[in-house]
Amino acid sequence: MKNTVNRRSLLKSSLMTLGGMALAPHISMGAFQNASFSVDEKNRLYYSPLLREHFLDERPDVMAMAARLNANENPYGPPESAKKAVIDAVSGGNRYSWRELAVLVDKIAKKEGVDTKHIMMGPGSSDLLEKFALVMFMNGGNIVSADPTYMSLIRVAESVGAKWKPVPCTKDWSHDLKAMEAAIDKDTKMVYICNPNNPVGTITDSKALMDFCSRVSEKVPVFIDEAYLELAEGTGAVSMVSLLKEKKNVIIARTFSKIMGMAGLRVGYAVALPSTLDQIQKITRGGMGISHTSVLGAIASFEDTEFQAMTKKLNTECKEYLYENLKKLNYKYITSYTNFVIFPINMDGKEFLSKMTAKGVMIRTFDINDKPWCRVSMGTMDEMKLFVKALGELS
Ligand SMILES: Cc1ncc(COP(=O)(O)O)c(C=O)c1O
Predict the structure, then answer these.
(1) In the structure, what pLDDT confidence band is assigned to residue 24 with cuts at 50, 70 and 90?
(2) 268: Cβ below 6 Å to ligand 1?
(3) Across-strand partners of 255?
(4) What is the pLDDT of residue 36?
(5) Of 77, 131, 299, 371, which residue is 20 to 30 A from 218 by alpha carbon distance?
(6) Whose CA is closest to 156, among 295, 275, 284?
(7) Which domains does the chain have, with CATH numbers?
C-alpha cells in the first residue's frame, strides 16, 4: 500500500506532531520540493516497485555536518576560474544575459558537434527533465524506463497523468534493453535512460545502447540522461548525441553540476532535434532561468579542462580508497562509473541513516527489493576517511 502525501501537508502535520521538527532533508530541499510524493506502509519514500528510500524524522543541521556525501556533488568545485567569472559578472546583473548565454550555447554546440538550434539551456538539467516531462506527457501516455533509476523526470510525468512502465534492471544492474523495447506500446511517449544510472552507478554498454536508441527512436523519443557520463572512465562510454546527425529522435541531457562542480550555480542543457525542442519551447523557456553570474561561471568551467581532469582523477582515487575499505570491512559493492557508490548494508536503512547522521556523515539509504543499501557520494579524501571510520564503527 502506498499513500500519496503532499509535502506541504506532511510538513504541516510533522510540524504539529514533532514540535517544530521538519522532514527529511532530501524532501525539504530536494528536487521534489513542492511535488506530491508517496510513503509506503513502512514509512519509506515510495519511488518504484523495487526502490524505496528512508528519511529522517528530523532535518539535520546540514552546515554542521562533517561530510556531505548524499547528493553526488563535486567537492572541489566551483573551479577557481568559475569563481572569478561569477564575481566579475555580478555588476552586469542588471541586464538579461542573452548575449552571454548565446556565447555559452555556441561553445556547447561546437563541443557537441551540432548546430545551436539543437541546444536548450536550463538552470540545471532537473529543470529540463521536468519541462520535457510536463510537455510530453500533458496529454497522458506512458513512459518506459529502468527500475531502479533516477526518478525526477518520471515523477513529474506521473504527476501530470503519465503511466510509468518500470522495467527491472538486469542482474548486473544495467538496463535490460530487450525488455525495455518489448515494454513499448502504442501509448508510449518516451523511453527514459539514465546512463550511467543513478542510484546504482552502473553503465550500459554504449554500442548496445546506440543500437537500441537508433532503432527505438524511430518509434518513440528516447531521452538519455548523461549527468555522470564524463565520470565513466575506462569504459569506452560515449554520448548518444551523435545520433542527432542521423536525425534520430533522441534527447540528451547534460549537467554542469557534477564534473564541472557547479551544482549550486544551476546550469544544464539538452541536445535534441530542433523540432523536439520547438515542442518544449512553445510552452516553456529554457535559458530564462539561468542567472547572469551562472552563465559566466559556466563559460569558465566549461573551458576549464584542467579542473575537469582533476575532478576525474580525485574521484577515481576516492572510489579506489572506498572499495579497498569496503572490502576490508566485508561489504560487497556495485562497481560504479559515477561519483557515488551503492552497497548493501546489514542494518535497517533508517537506523543506519540516523547513526551515520549522528556521526556527522550525510549519506542516503535505499531499500532495493526490500534489502537495505547505502549510497555514498565521493567527497574529498578527508571526507571519505570520515565515512570509512564511521562505517567501521557501525560494522
Ligand atoms: C541522473 C541525474 N540526472 C539529473 C540530475 C540533476 O542534476 P542538475 O539538476 O543539478 O543538473 C541528477 C542529480 O543528481 C542526476 O543524478
Answers:
(1) very low
(2) yes
(3) 268
(4) 56
(5) 131
(6) 284
(7) 80-303 (3.40.640.10), 304-371+383-395 (3.90.1150.10)
